Amino acid sequence: MRTYRIGLGSSPIGDKVREGDRRTPEGDFYIFTKNDKSAYYLSLGVSYPNAAHAARGLRDGLITKGQYDEIMLALKAKKRPPQNTALGGDIYIHGNGAQSDWTWGCAALENDDIRELFAAVTVGTAVTIEP
Predict the structure, then answer these.
(1) What is the value of pTM for the model shown?
(2) Cα–chain-centroid distance for residue 87?
(3) Could you read off the pLDDT of 50-83 as tens digits, one per residue?
(4) Which of 2, 20, 61, 130 has the most CB within a 10 Å radius?
(5) DSSP string, 26-87
(6) 26 CB neighbour count, 10 Å cutoff
(7) How far is 32 from 43, CA to CA, in rounded Å?
(8) pLDDT tens for residues 120-129?
């Protein structure tokens, strides 16, 4: 089994809660897009926020009921969840190096590793990010 080095958000301890917290979200997601023209070599869009993040955001007053409903509809359809709420968004698995925790909440791999992963996965592939 191959081991991959991964760089996380620059505040790598704990689950993502809100936009700008520089944390990488934890939980179960799916790939909603593949971008071969990424500024970060190649990238795979991660379906953040997931249902658990949306429920917590609604409970804590970070998002409205309407935003929660939009997120849940997108998740049910396996589409891109809304990316412009107070929960944050634009979480990707991408290249450009994994030597440190430098992203704003994404998961960064070495370019060789993201190239291999990019070729192996399809839109809809399940992804689990664990602490």
Answers:
(1) 0.94
(2) 12
(3) 999 999 999 999 999 999 999 999 999 999 999 9
(4) 20
(5) -EEEEEEEEETT-TTSSEEEE--S-HHHHHHHHHTTSS-HHHHHHHHHHHHTT-PPP-SSTT
(6) 17
(7) 11
(8) 999 999 999 9
